């Protein structure tokens, strides 16, 4: 390597100060020499202080034209593993940087992932990129075609959990909104749009195994997950349970436990 053409003696001096782990790709390469108060390593070369991070990056990638800020995917300031360093201009930079602003909950399958960064009309944005689209494509490795939008099954625009995303047309989104408004005006706070038949249909699908999570029930009924949870928790529509035996009801409730275990 040594793409930066540092002298052999400088290279020796540098690498003698680096603890290389067994798993050289995934684990951090610890700088054991002098560190600045920020924790970033530093080495003197020809009387000039050079950051250990920059040295390592240049060693493998060639000299940088100007000083740059690195993003460390490992968050370890003393690490000089080039696999953990990324430039802001890197095409994959955003994949890593967004995580600083996402609160991933303990129950990351069922609960919302809150975005704490910039929002527009309540939707999460990073540098003018709508995150629901970005994260959907990242997770499902599928480009969203033109005219298709990402909808939230949780009704929480600031949520960026791919588990709560559903593709649809802009018209679906308008319909979602209208349904919610109509429901809110109705007698049962948004419950009015659901009918017993649809709920029973979906719960029967849980019993025969074709629906396996609260999200799937929510998708099937086209309603927010929180309402399904309220029904299962007997906070709403208590009469639904009456159509089932205790065993059946327990089986239906077990989908909540299944999701919690899958961590
Ligand atoms: Zn590292
Ligand atoms: Zn959500």
How many domains? The number is 3
Number of strands: 13
Small-molecule components bound? zinc ion
Calculate the mean pLDDT score and round it.
85
Number of helical regions: 9
- What structural class do you assign from the helix and strand content? alpha+beta
Report the major sheet.
3 strands, antiparallel
- Portion of residues within helices: 25-40%
* Spatial strand order of the main sheet: 9-10-11
N- to C-terminal separation? Answer: 41 Å
Element pattern in H and E: HEEEEHEEHEEEEEHEEHHHHH
Mass-distribution shape? elongated
Structure, briefly:
Helix content is 35%, strand content 14%. It contains nine helices and 13 strands.
Structure notes:
The chain is an alpha+beta fold. It folds into three domains: 8-90, no CATH class; 113-168, no CATH class; 196-261. Helix content is 35%, strand content 14%. It has helices at residues 8-15, 52-61, 93-97, 131-140, 170-185, 196-207, 214-221, 225-232, 246-261, and strands at residues 18-19, 30-31, 42-45, 48-51, 70-72, 85-87, 102-103, 114-115, 119-120, 123-126, 129-130, 149-152, 165-168. It has a three-stranded antiparallel β-sheet with strand order 9-10-11. Strands 1-2 form a two-stranded antiparallel sheet. It has a two-stranded antiparallel ribbon with strand order 3-4. A hairpin with a 2-residue loop joins strand 10 (123-126) and strand 11 (129-130). Helix 7 packs across helix 8. The chain starts with 7 loop residues before the first helix and ends with a helix. Bound molecules: zinc ion (2 copies). One zinc ion binds next to loops.
